[in-house]
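Data availability (excerpt). All sequences and predicted C-alpha cell strings are deposited with the supplementary files. A representative entry, Odorant receptor, is shown inline so that the format can be inspected without opening the archive.
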Amino acid sequence: MMDNLFIMHVIVKTIFISYSVAYVVMVSLPLVFSMATGQKILPFGFRMPYFDQTTWFGYNSNYALHFVLSLYVLSEGMGPDSMFMVLMMNSFTQIDLLKSSLQELSEKINKKELNIGNSLKHIINRHQEHLRYLQTIEAVYRIFYFVSFVSFGANLVLSLYAVVKLSWYQGLAFMFFISYELLFSCFTGTLLAIKSEQLQRAIYDVPWHKMSTVNQRKIRFLLEASQKPLSLTLIFYRTDMPTFLKMYKTIYSIFTMLLTVRED
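C-alpha cell line:
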C-alpha cells in the first residue's frame, strides 16, 4: 500500500508538472518571440474582432484572452486527470489487499487452521466489491474518454498539419500536451491489466490441494472470476498501450492522406 501511495504521489506531481510546463511553453514562447522580433504572434492564432492586431494594445488584449482560456483549459483538464488517478490507485490498493489476504490464507492452510472457509468467503466478497467498483469507474469514464480520444485525435492531426504547412511551431507544445493526455489514459489501463495478472498469480499460489473439497470449489470460482478481469474501455476499444499505438498509426495515416490531398 505504501508503494501505491508513493506511486500516486509521483504521478499526481508529474501531472501537475506536465500541465504547468505545457501551459508555460504554449503561452510564453509566442510572447517572447513577439517581443524579440516585433512580429505579433498569438499562442493559438485566433483573435477577437474589432481589435487591431497590428497595435500592441490589440495584441495584448488578444493575448490576455489566450492566457485566460489556456489557464482555464489546463486547469479543467488537470482536475479530472488527478481524480481519475486517485480512483485507479484505489483499485490498485484493493488488489494489493486481496493479494495480502491470499498470502494470509496460504499461511492458515499450511498451519491447518479451522477458519479457512470464512477467510476465503471474505476474500471472495472483497473481490466482488472490487469488480463492482471497476464497473462503476468504467461506466462513468468510457463515454468521457471516447469523446476525449476522438477530439484529441482530430486536434493532433490538425496541429500536425498546421506545424508542417503553416509553420505554427508553438503547436509543438500543444501536440505534446495531447500526446500526454492519450498516453496517460492508456498507461493507466495497462497498469490495471498488470495488477489483475498479479492477482491471478496470487490465487494460483494458494495451496488449494490442502483444502477441503468445498473450499477447493470456492477457490476455483475465485480463480475463474479473476481470469475475466474488467478493463477500462473507450466503448469499442480497451484503454491500453496497444490502443495508444493503434491510435497514433491512425493519426499518422490521416495526416499523410491530408497532405496528399492538399498537394493534389
